[in-house]
Write a structure and sequence with these properties.
single chain, alpha/beta, 5-stranded parallel beta sheet, about 30% helix, disordered N terminus
Length: about 325
């Protein structure tokens, strides 16, 4: 008796009426994406639109390439890697982010090898979307023209996309933050400029003055705002948020000689232990310059005014 024939394989279901199947492969954008500002967000919306249903992938780096290629002039960063990944995810335009370690060996890789290894073999890219001035690979030899020489994917080079705030760049936002113009920086970022760090024991001087502060231990490659006093929101690990008056300063009244500014936050409505916790500090407004006072009493009086001003800035 002959064996029964296997049942026929089911035919693939057709796409819903009025829709087309997604193109094969992935839609990829590459860049440092420091800050994930409104300009970056416009690029990612365009990536999503051009993807036409393909998986959207951002390729970025765990060190800014400039820290390896030209460390003497490398910029301080607006965002840590964790912040950047969170901000990319928050756009809603990125299905997957690939983080590539960037070191000297990577900087010496020929751009053609990068394309084959990362875009073709690694991601099966069928669309690559980058800025028109994008450069990559050894000697920055890779560019949009080189990408277009590869037949395995389409390349789109984008100029500055129009956003209501005008042309936006990470460099411009760094300048604003470095000048203490955190309100303008927030307008271009699409959110407040944020510092993250662990709360460590300081010299406990604020406690003796009646204003105990949380001292931030910050990553040295991240950008600090200009020295001064700020109104800010302090977020604890559990997600609770407290209003704060923040000092970014060198503490001249006490004759301190710190090589870098110290970041201290006085929480306006809180009494508890913050030591050891990882905190976020979202700067809202710069209230004043740092000053040197002739007496401790004058400093304490000004700190009281700073608290009032911070409350006013945070609760309009």
């Amino acid at each position: 008796m002959p064996s029964p024939s296997p049942p026929p394989s089911p035919s693939p279901s057709p796409p819903p009426s009025g829709t087309s199947p997604s193109p094969p492969g992935t839609a990829v954008s590459i860049g440092a994406y420091d800050g994930v500002h409104l300009g970056h967000q416009a690029v990612l919306r365009e990536l999503r639109r051009l993807a036409e249903g393909r998986e959207t992938v951002v390729v970025t780096f765990d060190r800014h390439p400039a820290t390896v290629v030209r460390p003497e002039s490398a910029p301080k960063l607006l965002t840590s890697l964790d912040q950047k990944l969170e901000a990319l995810d928050a756009t809603g335009c990125v299905d997957r982010t690939v983080v590539i370690p960037f070191d000297y060996q990577r900087s010496q890789k020929e751009p053609e090898d990068f394309v084959r290894e990362v875009l073709i073999d690694g991601l099966d890219a069928s669309l690559v979307v980058v800025g028109e001035d994008f450069h990559f690979g050894r000697g920055r030899r890779g560019n949009v023209a080189l990408l277009r020489q590869f037949s395995g994917f389409d390349t789109v080079g984008l100029g500055l996309l129009a956003v209501a705030e005008g042309p936006i760049s990470s460099t411009a936002i760094r300048r604003l933050v470095a000048a203490g113009e955190v309100e303008e920086a927030a307008r271009l970022l699409g959110r407040p400029f944020e510092l993250r760090g662990t709360i460590v024991t300081g010299n406990r001087r604020g406690r003796t003055l009646g204003y105990p502060t949380a001292n931030f231990d910050l990553t040295p490659d991240l950008l600090l705002p200009a020295v001064g006093i700020y109104a800010a929101w302090y977020e604890r690990p559990d997600g609770s948020v407290q209003p704060a008056a923040v000092s970014v300063g060198l503490r001249p009244t006490f004759g301190d000689t710190t090589p870098l500014p110290v970041v201290e936050a006085f929480l306006l409505d809180f009494d508890g232990n913050l030591y050891g916790e990882a905190a976020k500090l979202r700067l809202v407004r710069r209230l004043r310059d740092e000053e040197r006072f002739d007496s401790i009493a004058a400093l304490v009086e000004q700190m009281g005014r700073d608290v009032v001003d911070a409350w006013a800035a945070l609760t309009p």
